[in-house]
Amino acid sequence: MAFFKKYNGTTNARLLRVERVIWALIYGGLLTLVLSYFAHEKQGVDVTLLQIIGGLAVAAGVVMVFVRSRLHEER
Q: What is the mean pLDDT of residues 1-18?
């Protein structure tokens, strides 16, 4: 008996697309935040817009995780 329940994914193309967008937003936003932090420290460039975009992308991804949890696959 496995400790974690195995998740094989969904066969619904719409839900699969939503899951891919969620992780792209979260990881892309985090990468943007990290890069803007180091660009600000090393070059002194005004990267406020980059930080805002990264933060909004992460926030949108987190909200979409909640939305995806409410969507169900049709059987």
A: 74
